[in-house]
From TrEMBL:
<feature type="transmembrane region" description="Helical">
    <location>
        <begin position="66"/>
        <end position="84"/>
    </location>
</feature>
<dbReference type="Pfam" id="PF00324">
    <property type="entry name" value="AA_permease"/>
</dbReference>
<feature type="transmembrane region" description="Helical">
    <location>
        <begin position="364"/>
        <end position="388"/>
    </location>
</feature>
<keyword id="KW-0813">Transport</keyword>
<feature type="transmembrane region" description="Helical">
    <location>
        <begin position="16"/>
        <end position="37"/>
    </location>
</feature>
<feature type="transmembrane region" description="Helical">
    <location>
        <begin position="337"/>
        <end position="358"/>
    </location>
</feature>
<protein>
    <submittedName>
        <fullName>LysP protein</fullName>
    </submittedName>
</protein>
<keyword id="KW-0812">Transmembrane</keyword>
<feature type="domain" description="Amino acid permease/ SLC12A">
    <location>
        <begin position="15"/>
        <end position="464"/>
    </location>
</feature>
<dbReference type="InterPro" id="IPR004840">
    <property type="entry name" value="Amino_acid_permease_CS"/>
</dbReference>
<feature type="transmembrane region" description="Helical">
    <location>
        <begin position="280"/>
        <end position="305"/>
    </location>
</feature>
<feature type="transmembrane region" description="Helical">
    <location>
        <begin position="125"/>
        <end position="143"/>
    </location>
</feature>
<keyword id="KW-0029">Amino-acid transport</keyword>
<dbReference type="GO" id="GO:0016020">
    <property type="term" value="C:membrane"/>
</dbReference>
<feature type="transmembrane region" description="Helical">
    <location>
        <begin position="408"/>
        <end position="427"/>
    </location>
</feature>
<keyword id="KW-1133">Transmembrane helix</keyword>
<dbReference type="InterPro" id="IPR050524">
    <property type="entry name" value="APC_YAT"/>
</dbReference>
Length: 476
């Protein structure tokens, strides 16, 4: 895109690796993994996280192929527009922007909850306001300041997971904690699989939310110094790290804490005071574990807010470049920052936060509406990649021309497509069993929202699915 020249390519390979890795290691691992084990048992949780991990790998390789060929900021909307249908690009872009703008508000609200662990008498809105100002300043300074901040916040999370794994293994063998648990918790009562397929499917959703953020590598591609080298390298590194951190970490938690533990039931995103990591550290005899993990969870929340601000700002800028949003959001300053888009995103994040303070029902509505948007974005990546590769071959190109090609095509995008649909439909399968229409409408609100956006653009501009031979493969 011609306007992309206004963006500064300041993100290095180490930034991209850590952004993709750090974007996926957060409260989903540190907090929600406990509830996953309590619901589906150790085997069910491991199966769900491994399945989603494989799907994410295929999505990353699909995104990597497109991002090295056409590195643009706000990639999902651009790829959907050029390789599928402009109506899909419109819906995909606004869907993803909405997701991160709402998530930004959730994160600054969560930051207040975390801080009140230490300072319970200070009003939460003060911490949220300070967090928002800090995140805004980081993103307003430069692309490099965002990358460096995310790099160091991610390192804190990665080091914590490594220390946790070491302590966990020592505890399993009885070197710490005084009692060797071995694998006894994997065979107790109904373990390793609890609740059958419905419970495993529900944990697929939890695992999916935990992995969301890995796709940020596609958003950052437009501001990478050497996307053709840094993106493939980042994808290879991130896959193995995520698999190691997530699968091994859940194995350690499940081996030490039985799935029947009432403490694991409290391990949900709404209760950040109980982390399965904290439970394991306490089991090993580390008394200050709660305070340490609370500090780590705070860095995770701030990292997520930082990434959310960056992603939503770039997506709004990209939407304006394609004519899907007001022209004023196209402008960048001398440092390559789209300030109008940054202010716009901050304003929506602030409004949503205020809704959480003064109108909880509005807040819950917005939060529910953004619930499945990450999965819809993944669905868009899989469809766009399938169409891109088919168009590439239909127009006489060979796969060997690509600087980076996704392996196992078309198995990868098709498998990712199927799993994404399965997770989206299985979001709240229990509500269908009890015919709880209110719960169904809240859980699946993202789907009609996407359909409305898609249908509006399709009817207004009479767009059609682009024939493979007419797909625009030019690198501009």
């Amino acid at each position: 895109m011609a306007e992309q020249e206004g963006m500064h390519r300041e993100l290095k390979t180490r930034h991209l690796s850590m952004i993709a890795l750090g974007g996926s290691i957060g409260t989903g691992l540190f907090v929600a993994s406990g509830s996953a084990i309590s619901k589906a048992g150790p085997g069910g949780a491991l199966l769900a996280y491994a399945g989603i991990g494989i799907m994410v790998y295929f999505l990353m390789t699909s995104l990597g192929e497109m991002a090295t060929y056409l590195p643009v900021s706000g990639s999902f909307a651009v790829y959907s527009t050029r390789f599928v249908d402009p109506a899909m690009g419109f819906a995909m872009g606004w869907n993803y922007w909405f997701n991160w703008a709402i998530t930004l508000a959730v994160d600054i609200s969560t930051a207040a909850l975390v801080m009140q662990f230490w300072l319970p008498d200070v009003p939460g809105w003060i911490f949220s306001t300070v967090s928002l100002v800090i995140i805004f300043a980081i993103n307003a300074l430069s692309v490099k300041s965002f990358g460096e901040t995310e790099y160091w916040l991610s390192i804190i999370k990665v080091v914590t997971v490594i220390v946790f794994l070491v302590v966990g293994v020592l505890t399993i063998f009885g070197i710490l904690g005084g009692h060797a648990t071995g694998l006894e918790n994997f065979t107790m009562k109904k373990a390793p699989f609890v609740g059958g397929v419905p419970m495993i499917l529900s944990v697929f959703v939890v695992a999916g939310f935990s992995f969301q953020g890995t796709e940020l590598i596609g958003i950052t591609a437009g501001e990478s110094e050497t996307p053709e080298k840094s993106i493939p390298k980042a994808i290879k590194q991130v896959f193995w790290r995520i698999l190691l951190f997530y699968i091994f970490a859940i194995f350690v938690i499940a081996a030490i804490i039985p799935y029947t533990s009432p403490d694991l039931l409290g391990s949900s995103a709404s209760d950040i005071s109980i982390s399965p990591f904290t439970l394991v550290f306490q089991r090993a005899g580390l008394a200050s574990a709660a305070s340490i993990m609370n500090a780590v969870i705070l860095t995770s929340v701030l990292s997520a807010a930082n990434s959310g601000m960056y992603a939503s700002t770039r997506m709004l800028h990209s939407l304006a470049e394609q004519g899907y949003a007001p022209k004023k959001f196209r402008k960048t300053n001398k440092r390559g920052i789209p300030m109008a888009a940054l202010w716009g995103t901050t304003f929506i994040g602030l409004l949503t936060f205020l809704a959480s303070v003064f109108g909880s029902r509005v807040y819950v509505f917005l939060l529910s509406a953004s619930g499945l948007t990450g999965f819809i974005a993944w669905l868009g990546i899989a469809i766009s990649h399938y169409r891109f590769r088919k168009a590439f071959e239909a127009q006489g190109h060979k796969v060997s021309e690509l600087k980076y090609s996704a392996k196992w095509f078309p198995v990868g995008p098709i498998l990712a497509l199927i799993l994404c649909i399965l997770v989206i439909l299985g979001q709240d399968i229990q509500s269908f069993q009890h015919f709880d229409w209110e719960a169904i409408s809240v859980s699946y609100m993202s789907i009609p929202l996407f359909i409305v956006l898609y249908t509006y653009y399709k009817i207004r501009y009479k767009t059609k699915l682009i024939p493979l031979k007419d797909v625009d493969l030019s690198k501009k």
